[in-house]
Each structure stands twice: as C-alpha cells, then as structure tokens.
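Why should sequence recovery work at all? Because a backbone constrains its sequence more than one might expect. Tight turns favour small or flexible residues, buried strands favour hydrophobic ones, and helices have their own preferences. The token representation captures these environments compactly. In the example below, the structure is given first.
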C-alpha cells in the first residue's frame, strides 16, 4: 500500500471557506458590473441630450457643453473599461473555483491509500512477466513528462506515483 503525501492535505472546511469567499467575490463583482452597465446607459442618455442641446445653443454654451460631453464620454469609457476588467476578474475567479474543485478531487483520490495490485489490475499470484508489463504501462501513463502541462500539483502527484511504482518494480527484478 502507498501512503499519501502530507503536503497535499487540506481540510474540507478550509477548502469550503475559500470557495465561499471566491463565490461571494464573484457575486459582488457581478453586481458591480450591473451597476456600471446601468451607469453607462444613463451616461449615454445624457450624452444624447447634450448633443442635441449642443446644436441649438450659442457658442459659449456649446463650448461648455462640449467640455461636459467630453468628460462624460471619458467617464463612460472609464466605466466600460472597468466593466471589462471586472468581467475578466469574474472569469478568472470562476476558473480558480473550477481548478480548486478539480485539484480537491485529485487530492481526495491520492490521499487514499492506493493498492498497487488494484492499479495493476492483477492479484498477487500473477506471473512476474504480467506484473512487469502492467508496471511498465503504468509507469508510461504516470510518467512526469506525460503530465507536464497539467499543473505543478498533478506533476508532483505523477512523480510520487512513478517513484512508488519504481520501488514496487524493484521487488520483481
């Protein structure tokens, strides 16, 4: 049996708290986006009204209105940029939540003691040749180079499994 690695341990309570915080932040950001979108609509209406007034007033008033109009347009652009930024943060938070759930599932799998015979799909009375063949297949599957784009945690897990399989293989060589 293979022992689990202590550095992967995280309590379910800690994980739940982190997920709740991320979800609350996500909700707050979505509400902020809605507020900004409403502000943008209001600003667009004001800009249209000012554009209409601009065409019907004297030069002085036109100059003043132009300044206000430019300021409002700049504010609208700033709001739109902030809106885009908040949307990207929401997407990032959603991805973090999804990744945390995936990693947590993987941690639960590898926290459990792994039965080598179950991994090999054999029983202890199998021939040495069959054991070696299945071991080699598992070594190929969990080789760290195969999971190089899967993140550091999964690379570490694959590396640990590979080491444990190599130790088990030494018993049969």
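From this structural description, the recovered sequence reads:
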């Amino acid at each position: 049996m293979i022992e689990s690695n202590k550095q992967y341990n995280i309590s379910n309570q800690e994980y739940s708290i982190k997920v709740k915080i991320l979800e609350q932040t996500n909700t707050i950001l979505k509400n902020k986006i809605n507020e900004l979108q409403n502000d943008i609509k209001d600003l667009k209406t004001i800009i249209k009204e000012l554009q209409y007034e601009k065409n019907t007033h004297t030069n002085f008033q036109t100059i003043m209105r132009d300044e206000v109009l430019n300021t409002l347009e700049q504010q609208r652009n700033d709001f739109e940029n902030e809106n885009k930024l908040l949307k990207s943060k929401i997407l990032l938070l959603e991805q973090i939540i999804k990744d945390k759930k995936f990693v947590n599932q993987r941690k639960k799998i590898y926290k459990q003691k792994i039965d080598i015979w179950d991994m090999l799909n054999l029983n202890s009375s199998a021939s040495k040749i069959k054991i070696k063949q299945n071991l080699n297949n598992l070594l190929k599957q969990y080789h760290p180079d195969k999971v190089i784009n899967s993140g550091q945690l999964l690379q570490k897990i694959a590396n640990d499994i590979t080491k444990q399989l190599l130790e088990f293989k030494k018993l049969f060589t």
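A few observations help interpret the result. The chain has a mean pLDDT of 77.
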